[in-house]
Design goal:
6 helices, 181 residues
Length: 181
């Protein structure tokens, strides 16, 4: 990746390239998340359908906006943001979402695992950005707070009265969905 310029004079080209690569990874993850959330919105069924259906659409819009913010930050840093499906596939370190039409509990448990991955990767990018660019770090911190709030909304549907999640021991979205059914 060729970086045309840097925002701050104290940011060297190597640091800028690493930061841009990290932001591109986050852009790809959020682009995938927004598509996954819309997929769930279309495929969730069950007694709590309407509440979950309506809860997910604002998440879709917010996550799409986060992706746009990251793309603009990449451009401001001198990079060239890539929002294609090929970029998502190239940057993917996660499995594609595998559930189709399924219950509220199955989808929410699967999404909980998805959010674990997205939030964890955002936190890693925060750590890198904190060493290079406070503006990018601040953006990522704000996004992570919102993503964690969305995850809390989903977990609140799944928790028992003691705060336990039936799928807590599962590391994959398919495993979480199966346990939650």
């Amino acid at each position: 990746m060729t970086v045309q310029h840097t925002i701050a004079n104290n940011t060297n080209t190597n640091d800028s390239e690493r930061l841009i690569a990290a932001l591109q990874g986050r852009l790809s993850a959020l682009s995938d998340l927004h598509l996954t959330l819309k997929h769930v919105h279309w495929n969730v069924v069950g007694p709590s359908f309407i509440g979950v259906h309506q809860m997910i659409d604002p998440q879709v819009e917010t996550v799409r906006g986060f992706a746009d913010d990251l793309a603009e930050r990449i451009a401001a840093l001198g990079g060239s943001p890539c929002g294609t499906t090929a970029a998502i596939a190239d940057n993917r370190t996660w499995d594609d979402y595998s559930l189709g039409r399924d219950t509220v509990t199955a989808h929410l448990a699967a999404l909980d695992v998805v959010y674990d991955g997205v939030v964890g990767s955002h936190r890693a990018a925060i750590e890198l950005a904190g060493k290079i660019d406070p503006v990018s770090e601040d953006m990522l911190i704000g996004q992570t707070g919102e993503l964690e709030k969305f995850q809390w909304f989903m977990r609140a549907h799944l928790e028992d009265p003691f705060g336990d999640l039936p799928h807590a021991a599962q590391a994959t979205e398919a495993g979480a969905a199966s346990t939650a059914r």
